[in-house]
Amino acid sequence: MIFANALPARSALQNAMTKAYRRDETTCLEALLPEAAFSQETLLRIDATAAQLVEGTRANRKKQGILDTLLYRYDLSSQKGIALMCLAEALLRIPDKATQQKLIRDKMLTAQWARHLSQIGSVLIRPMVIQGIKIISKQFIMGTTIEKAIKRARSSEEMGYRYSYDMLGESAKTREDARHYFESYHRAIEAIGKACRNASPITNPGISVKLSALYPRYEFAKYEQVMNELAPLLLTLAKTAKQYQIGLTVDAEECDRLELSLDIIEKVFSDPALDGWEGFGLAVQAYQKRAPFVLDWLADLAKRYQRRLMVRLVKGAYWDSEIKWSQVPGLEGYPVFTRKNSTDVSFIACAKKMFEYSDYFYPQFATHNAYSVAAILEMAGTERQFEFQCLHGMGQTLYDQLVGEKNRNIPCRIYAPVGTHKDLLGYLVRRLLENGANSSFINHIANDQIPLEKIIQNPVARIAALAHKPHPYISLPKNLFGPERLNSSGVDFSNMHTLEQLKTKMDALSKQQWTAGPLIDGKMLTDSPEHTIVSPSNSEHIVGVTHDATSQQVKNAIEQADRATSHWGKTTVEERAVFLERAADLFEQHQPELITLLCKEAGKQLVDCVSEIREAVDFCRYYAARAREDLLPKTLNGPTGEFNQLSLHPRGVIACISPWNFPLAIFTGQIVAALAAGNTVIAKPAEQTPLIAAKAIRLLHQAGIPTAALQLLPGRGEIVGAELVADTRIAGVMFTGSTETAQLINQSLAKRQGAIVPFIAETGGQNAMIVDSSALPEQVVTDVISSAFNSAGQRCSALRVLFLQEDIAPRIIDMLKGAMREITVGDPALLSTDVGPVIDKDALTMLNNHFAEMQKKATLIYQVENKSHPNGYFFAPCAFELSDLTLLKREVFGPILHVIRYAEKNLDQVLDQIINTGYGLTLGVHSRIDATVKYIQDRMPVGNMYVNRNIIGAVVGVQPFGGERLSGTGPKAGGPHYLPRLCVERAISVNTTACGGNATLVSLKEE
Question: Distance between CA atoms of 377 and 382, rounded to whole angstroms?
Fold first, then answer.
């Protein structure tokens, strides 16, 4: 499946581009270094020009922008610089004065500015800081309207500068946002066009357009929708730009959107309505490994349609984010270079290529780096059919030396943001991060302590001299956890080659039917009651057949496991760890089959399938690593003449009872933890998902786990689970599921005769998120959508209750409604699907009943349109506004969000309401005020707290997961305290002086 329809065939140039997406960095640089090299004579000229430009820039310090000076004085290596960025990002969008004052007080103290402001109260500081931020903002904003920006530009245009106007605004979250941005772009094009004085898009001002602003779900997963709906919008803007003969440049965005952007560009650029116009352009990011291949493809595009393109070469604006976005999903490498100098090498190599393609391109070079400028001037020679570009308010003193007839008469276009202070925030933070970092050129040039030679250092020579080209402190995603363990491998759902390979394998598996049944000593038994497993997506589709364990089979399994305890318990820790690591490798090798099974049997959406497999793999490797560290005997300090040691030993047979919502990850995590500790295991999977469980057990056996040490007993909980818990040979129970079932198990264990055994339970939670008015609404909505509705809300950690400070509640609720309209409910095997089915008919009935109850007690905010299969168990995500948390009596396990407003002064009441539910699993907080976050953290008894992010997707070994009170017993799964709970502790103390005296003490050497 993956795609509903076949995608267009890819050309050889497109395939080359895709192949380079995450290519080995050293390989990339070895190809680029010769392309970026110059002769020694040329290098001397570049050095001289660069030195002249730096000295000229430093000499014109009086003309330097406020931001240039500020970024040097408060660089991001300092607390003050970080505080400045936090204030700039948040202050102007906070609607209430109380929260504004809290933020100022919080950041002033953090930045150690208190001694400078000790005589001024926060009430007096607030208007001063707001005014200061507005002054800073004005340095970045050309004008609050396009008309004001055009008027302000005239003086610089008379000096020889050109302009490209950027209508501020980040990615659209809703159709309303997208419509607003489209209209803003359209109005701006007409205003620019009417003010033009020339007949060429090269000499006229232009406009920059973000595709993500034109469509609320501009992402690769929505490929078909984007091509059908966004491309016509861009074509309309392009035709209007052609009408006025101005340039229209498509801005560069995140790497995972690149090839989608290029497909849109081809669809628009190829339209005959644009014939005769050479103002269509796009930005290419030199920090991407694909940049040279993008230029090759663009040249071919221009050649095919006999029309020149404007190509803006930039270095890239999302570098830090791209690194994290590759690490989190465990991708094979980075799409960007890990060293700044490597990006500079790429920039020079790409610049050379652009000049070579001068028949097809009008080259535009966006840089504030004097060495890059000097290198391009050397490449250009007497050629003037190109231009430089710089950001409004930054680095203009560099280009003042080049622009105009009095200088070199080199064209420079200023990239000029237009909009209100509210729209500026996201853009401002990117600029602060790029140029405030202590490695940036702007930071260096403002610092007289940095010698000229360092500022104009040749990046090609620097990178060529390095034995190890990638940054030593930025490891590949697979090595994220260092020597302890490998990170699990993910799937790059924006890589066409990866998707094609996955699709081929899944299509081959799609007609397969799987079988499950009791696996006792490695033999699957089929002489017990049988029933079919149907897909939650379509109850008419049979996924496979399962056999439920009988009472006698339960007894046989316990007997086998009990007999195997001695042999498995004596297996060395190292051997057990190797088996688990081998299992992790097998899970990754069988990834397509596991994705197919998870999708069909559990109704999981493709991205969730991959995340679950990765979690299972992480459990195997993490517990293998912890076993090597935690389970070795520890010698303890004591008086001389004694040997004291503490050691951990297996408990015996552990019953692992797992849920259907994570039928592979939690199922595997319980089992491998118990096995790592030397226990034998009887695994009882959820009734709804035995096929996945059977596959996992087979892989664990294949990895070397003895068949007698690991048994599988599928079946009903009241039969299989109850008998396991009641049997005195069971030395411990691990359970994930409902609080009610956990209490029943606890009571059953308490009634047993004999030893008191451990019970590890992870149960439900009335998980809340608290959002104050300092939070960024766009980020909040994104995190709420994923937290509440990913996996159809069927996660232990899913968001159930959203508390919004009343000052921003209307805006966030309105944005939430718009974002929910873009959610697609449907077949989980399609990449475009956001929300798949709930697990079964009972779950669907429960959700429908709660929905009906909420319609009487609360106000429906919005429910997503449901166009799913009529025979599937689909419940469309919805949100209700409640007056009070007491209206919810228990957790509702599914995609229903409950929203409650609160006053800033009533934060303590909110915390009390959450505490009074009795649960303590997960809590989210969205706030830019550190003191608020710390206060909530100190007050709330919850297992996992997440700040300014979503509240799902805990990573093994990074965010150990588990709750307290009604939400579980601990210890946390995927944490360092888990394995010891599955062991018994034994201490030995030996009097080593009993025979022969204390020879060690008397033979100590004198210094």
Answer: 9
Q: Confirm if 102 and 934 have CB atoms less than 8 A apart.
A: no
Question: Distance between CA atoms of 460 and 287, rounded to whole angstroms?
Answer: 14
Residue 988, Cα to own-chain centre: how many angstroms? 48
Region of residue 577 (phi > 0: left; psi between -120 and 50: alpha; otherwise: beta) = alpha
Q: Which of 28, 796, 878, 983 is catalytic?
A: 796
Specify the pairing of strand 634-636 against strand 642-650.
Answer: antiparallel
Residue 667 makes CB contacts below 8 A (sequence gap 6+) with 616, 656, 658, 683, 685, 692, 693, 696
Q: Are 945 and 922 in contact (CB under 8 A)?
A: yes
Tell me if residue 762 is catalytic.
yes
User: Any residues with CB less than 8 A from the CB of 12 and at least 6 apart, and which?
Assistant: none
CA dist 723 to 432, 521, 674, 712, 889, Å?
A: 62, 19, 20, 14, 31
Whether pLDDT at 450 is above 90: no
> Would you tell me the crossing angle of helices 340-356 and 25-36 to the nearest 10 degrees?
50
Catalytic residue among 762, 778, 822, 891: 762
Report the alpha-carbon distance of residue 291 to residue 298 in Å, rounded: 11
Q: CB within 8 A of 266, min separation 6: which ones?
A: 301
In a 3-state reduction of DSSP, which class is residue 179?
Answer: helix
**169: confidence class by pLDDT, cuts 50, 70, 90:** confident
Q: Which helix (H) or strand (E) holds 162?
A: strand 161-167
Enter the tokens of residue 814: 């309105």
The DSSP 8-state label assigned to residue 825 in this structure reads: B
pTM, rounded to two decimals: 0.94
What radius of gyration, in Å, describes the C-alpha atoms of the chain?
32
pLDDT exceeds cutoff 70 at 828: yes
Residue 451's pLDDT is: 74
418-428: b (≥16 Cβ within 10 Å) or e: bbebebbbbbb
3-state secondary structure of 866: coil
Of the candidates 403, 398, 357, which has an alpha carbon nearest to the alpha carbon of residue 379?
A: 357
Among 374, 530, 363, CA closest to 456: 374
Element (H, E) at 339: none
Query: Residue range 564-571: average pLDDT?
Result: 95
Q: Which helix (H) or strand (E) holds 13?
A: helix 12-19
281 in Cβ contact with 354 (< 8 Å): no
**Residue 115: which pLDDT band, with cuts at 50, 70 and 90?**
low
Q: Give yes or no: 196 in active site.
A: no
Enclosing H/E stretch for 631: none
Between CA 956 and CA 302 the distance in angstroms is 48
Identity (one letter) of the amino acid at 50? Answer: A
The strand pair at 768-771 and 801-805 is best described as parallel
280, burial (CB in 10 Å: exposed 0-12, middle 13-18, buried 19+): buried
Q: Note the Cα 634 to chain centre separation in Å.
A: 39
Average pLDDT value over all residues in the chain? 91
How many helices and strands in the chain, by DSSP H and E?
Answer: 37, 28
Q: How confident is the model at residue 520 (pLDDT cuts 50, 70, 90)?
A: very high
Closest to 420 measured CA to CA, from 94, 138, 90: 138
Coil, helix or strand at residue 735 = strand
- Residues with Cβ within 8 Å of 218's Cβ and at least 6 positions away in sequence, in order, are 171, 172, 211, 212, 226, 230, 257, 260
The number of C-alpha atoms within 13 Å of 188 and in the hemisphere containing its C-beta is 32
Q: If 0-12 CB within 10 Å is exposed, 13-18 middle and 19+ buried, where does residue 9 land? A: exposed
Please, how many CA atoms are within 13 Å of residue 582, restricted to the half-sphere of its CB?
A: 15
d(CA 54, CA 580): 58
State pLDDT tens for residues 9-66.
899 999 999 999 999 999 999 999 999 999 999 999 999 999 999 888 888 765 555 5
Query: What is the pLDDT averaged over residues 737-753?
Result: 94
Quick one: average pLDDT of 585-614?
A: 97
- Backbone φ and ψ of 11, nearest 5°: -80, 170
